[in-house]
Design goal:
11 helices; 2 domains; alpha/beta
Amino acid sequence: MNNQKVELLSPAGNLEKLKIAIKYGADAVYAGVSHFSLRIRAGKEFTFETFKEGIDYAHARGKKVYATINGFPFNSQIDLLKKHIATMAALKPDGFIVAAPGVVRLCREIAPEIDIHLSTQANVLNYLDAQVYWDMGVKRIVVAREISLKDVIEIKKHLPDMEIEIFVHGSMCFAYSGRCLVSAVQMGRVPNRGSCANDCRFQYTLYAANEDHNTLFRLEEEPGVGTYIFNSKDMNLASHIKEILDSGAVDSLKIEGRTKSPYYAAVTAKAYREAIDDYYEGKFEPEKYQKELYTTKNRGFTDAYLIHRPFEKTDSQNHDYALSKGSYEVTGLVTEDEEHFLCKYKVYPNEDIEIFTPMGEELVECENEIGKIFKKDGMYYINFKKILTETNKELESVHSGNVNKIKLPGKLPYLTMFRIENVEDNIVE
C-alpha cells in the first residue's frame, strides 16, 4: 500500500494557469504543446519556449510537469511524432502522458530517461491490462474514469510498485473513456485527435420517423426537462477524498480542465490541496471544499463512477442546461509587480470585494487614499475609494475591456484574485 502523501495534479492550459495551479496548491501540473496532445486548443497556448519556461518555474519550486503526448497518430505523422518526442524530452519534463501502445514504445526508445504515464484514454480497468503496460515500461497508469475504487485497490495489490492516478474533478465525457465520434461525425473535428467540438453539450431537438407511412414528427420533451441529452454533469469527488486516501491505493489525484479559466485552476487546486492536507491532519471537512468548488462554473456535480457503478447512477446527466456561471464572478487578478491588478469583470468604488489568495499567504491590512484592505468575519476584502490607472488617471469604474493596470491600496501576492457573489442569472445555455 502507498505510504507517501498523495500527489495533487492540476491542469495547465497556458503559462499563467500553470503558475496559478502551483501557487494555489498543486504538486504537479500537466500540459502540452499542440502537436499530438488531446487538447489542441490548450496546447496552442504553449510554445516550446514557454513550455520550457513553465517547466523551469515548476522545478524551481520543487513541483513537477507532465507533458501530454496522448493523441493517436496516423502513419503519415510518425516521423513528425519522433521529432516531437525528442524535442519535448530535451525540455526535461518529469513524465510523458501517452495513450497509444506504439507511442509508449517509441517514447521508451527515443527518451528512456522520461517516465511514461498511461493516459486514461487507454481505459485500463484491471490488473491484466495494467501488467501489460508495466511490462512495456509504463511507470504510472491514469485509470479509466469508469473504474471503481475496489478495482483500483485490486490493481495495486497485484502491482504495488506501479503508480495509480485517478481523476477526481472536472468535465465528464458521455462516451466510454472519452472514445467519442459525435464531434467527428457532425463537425469533422476528431475528439481522439484533440479537436473535440463538445457536441455533447448542445441542446438537441428530438424527432421520430415511421418509414412505413413516411412520417416524421417532433417529440415534445417532458415539461421541465430539457434536451441536453448527452450532457454529463461534472465530476466532483472532494467529499470522497478520505475514502480514496484511506484505500492506500492511489498515488495521484488529477483535476481535469486545461481549457477552463484561471479562476477554475485556482479554486480547484486550493480546495483539493486543503482536502488532502486536512485528511493527513485528521480534520477532513467536505462542506468547506464543496463551498469553494461550487463557486466555479459547472454543469452540476456528480460523484461519477469511482464510488458507485455506472448502472447504479441516476444523477450523472444534466438535461436542463449546458453550463452554470458558478456562485462567484472573478473581478480582478493581481499582476506580477504585486502593486496593481487587471480587471476581469467590473469594479466600482466603495464596494467590498472578497480577496482570494494563493496557498499560505498572509495579508496585511491597510488603508489610504486609494482604498483599504481589511478583514471581516475571517475573510479579507478590498474596497477602492479611487480607481486609479498606473498613470494616475482616475476612472469612475473599470471593466474587463480596459487593459490598464489599476493601482492597489497595498501590496498583494502575485496571482491573487478578487471575486464577488454572482447575483445575476446563474445559467448559461
